[in-house]
Write a structure and sequence with these properties.
The complex is a heterodimer of chains A (about 325) and B (about 200). Chain A is built from 13 helices and two strands. With about 325 residues, chain A is mainly α. Chain A has one domain. In chain A, a hairpin with a 2-residue loop joins strand 1 and strand 2. Chain B has two domains: about 40 residues; about 110 residues, Alpha-Beta Plaits (2-Layer Sandwich), CATH 3.30.70. In chain B, strands 2-3-5 form a three-stranded antiparallel sheet. Chain B has a two-stranded antiparallel ribbon with strand order 1-4. The mean pLDDT of chain B is about 85. Classes of the chains: A mainly alpha (about 325), B alpha+beta (about 200). At the A-B interface, helix 1 and helix 12 of A face helix 3 of B.
Chain lengths: ~325, ~200
């Protein structure tokens, strides 16, 4: 391991951390604005022109609030839970190629922190570990709503993980690799070679599972504000709650990268246009997360389990069988 | 925004009953409902509706401190003291009826005899923290001197906060450019009152 590689990796880590922490903050601004526009409201308007500095005000508030550890909580677990959510979201980003490789000052940069050969498995696994944040935070909070939320987190976890894993198995069979770079190169031939055309069912299933994975609105039942206060976040305040928040939004961004990379051609042939197209696709998927939040109602936990186990999982299994028969 | 929509108390007859199907009872009809709902892609109708609202961009928010909703002409907010149209002197004669009738006990009035041997109001205060804005003071006032106004922003940092006579009195400039507004609510004379006045027998 030479020094240049070490420096490059550290720089990439710092850039990804800084960029996506900031993006998570700005993502809240977009979310509030878009939801407001869809509901005929104005959204944040007062901090800065059209409220663009709102996330700065939120950040100041979160950073300076008192860090309250209530009596009765299991303090070590309570303290570590938000860190799990935030850190796993960023660890998952290690295997995501954000851009095609480019050359700067005669040095070729691969905008992926670690091109490991089990990329998708790593991403799904680490994102799955992220649900330990709500689970542990909810269980250690000494609050019945948090406990309910932890139970729901466990229910969501065992439901969606099956669907996302089985749904992605069919594309993996086609590509024959788990690295997202290989996925991208498999689809480099243009729109016609996107996996979504040959695996539409897997695409839809993985997309649905992504909503459960990130806990966004049709499946926003872990921290369902109108039923169980803020769920696992009820007892949290200040930056610990903020870490949950950053984790959730970073997860949204990363899953928005993963879906196009697997199904929609990623950055294509590696040109500048391909990179811009990838960012456009990411923007669409992020927008869709906000869009559904404005339009759709939440399902109950039992409905989510019904959907995942009785509808989506059989569909995924049938999809795998058909893919296997076609490939033979 | 106009006042008409506040004055129209009649509910429009645009309502209609929704055609709600009965709940399925057996498994086969439940299955049919699931298939029907899945294939009618109702979820995308919802997505289209919110997207349309975003594109149409017709906002209903009123940025409150900068813009305000119009309030009805009979809105009963902080009191006002009116001036006589003829002379510009204050209408209040210091009778004290408003203090007597006040159910919240929030009006204090003190009078004295001035140099012309006329009764004059020396102290007049209303505790807005106690006032329930019932309008009795305006109704009982024989001179239409105290009425309600439209100034509803009377938040305070303590429960007892007062308004005094000179704050409520119509300013002279307002009076001089003839923009003193008569209150149409409690205590106001009804329209066309002049025509309904019977002449006294002495006029015959």
């Amino acid at each position: 391991m030479d020094t240049a590689f070490l420096i490059e990796t550290i720089i990439k880590i710092v850039i990804v951390m800084a960029l996506f922490s900031a993006l998570a903050g700005i993502g809240t601004y977009f979310e509030r604005k878009i939801l407001a526009f869809m509901q005929r409201r104005l959204g944040p308007m007062n901090v800065g022109p059209y409220g663009v500095l709102q996330f700065g005000a939120d950040a100041i508030k979160l950073f300076t609030k008192e860090d309250i550890i209530p009596t009765g909580v299991v303090a070590p677990v309570f303290k570590i839970a938000p860190v799990i959510t935030a850190s796993t979201a960023f660890i998952a980003a290690a295997a995501i190629p954000f851009m095609p490789q480019f050359t700067i000052f005669g040095y070729t940069v691969h905008p992926i922190i670690a091109d490991i050969n089990i990329g998708i498995l790593f991403i799904l696994g680490v994102m799955g570990v992220g649900l330990y944040g709500p689970l542990l935070g909810g269980m250690s909070s000494a609050n019945k709503y948090s406990l309910l939320s932890a139970a729901r987190a466990a229910a969501v976890f065992i439901s969606y993980e099956v669907v996302s894993g089985l749904a992605i198995l069919a594309p993996i069979m086609m590509v024959g690799s788990l690295s997202l770079i290989d996925f991208n190169n498999y689809q480099a031939g243009g729109i016609g070679s996107w996996i979504v055309w040959s695996q539409p069912v897997a695409f839809v299933l993985f997309w649905i599972a992504a909503f459960a994975e990130t806990g966004r609105t049709p499946f926003h039942l872990i921290a369902n504000d109108h039923e169980i206060i803020d769920g696992f976040g009820t007892e949290y305040s200040g930056m610990r709650w903020g870490l949950f928040f950053i984790g959730e939004y970073a997860n949204m961004f990363f899953i928005s990268f993963v879906i196009p990379l697997i199904f929609l051609g990623g950055f294509g042939d590696g040109s500048v246009f391909g990179a811009l197209a990838l960012f456009g696709k990411v923007a669409f998927f992020f927008f869709f997360f906000l869009w559904t939040r404005a339009a759709w109602p939440d399902v109950r936990p039992d409905q989510l389990m019904w959907l995942c186990w009785k509808v989506l999982m059989p569909l995924a299994v049938i999809n795998i069988i058909i893919t296997g028969i076609v490939m033979m | 925004m106009k006042n008409e929509q506040f004055n129209n108390r009649n509910v429009d007859n645009d309502y209609f009953l929704l055609d709600i199907e009965d709940y399925p009872t057996d498994g086969w009809s439940k299955f049919k409902r699931v298939v029907k709902r899945s294939l009618r892609i109702e979820l995308f109708v919802g997505l289209w509706v919110v997207l349309r609202e975003m594109i149409v961009f017709k906002k209903h928010t009123i940025s409150y401190p900068e813009e305000k909703m119009p309030i009805g002409p009979r809105y009963r907010a902080v009191h006002e003291m009116k001036r006589l149209w003829e002379s510009g002197t204050e209408r209040c004669i210091g009778c004290g009826l408003c203090e007597k009738i006040c159910v919240a006990n929030c009006i204090r009035i003190d009078t004295k005899i001035d140099e012309n041997s006329r009764k004059e109001v020396s102290e007049y205060s209303i505790n807005l923290g106690r006032c329930i804005f019932c309008g009795y003071c305006a109704e009982v006032c024989p001179e239409l001197a105290i009425t309600h106004g439209g100034r509803y922003e009377n938040a305070s940092d303590q429960r007892e906060h007062f308004t005094i006579f000179n704050d409520m009195l119509t300013p002279l400039e307002t009076f001089k450019n003839e923009s003193q507004v008569e209150f149409e609510g409690f205590g106001a004379i009804t329209p066309h009152e002049d025509e309904r006045v019977k002449k006294t027998p002495l006029a015959y």
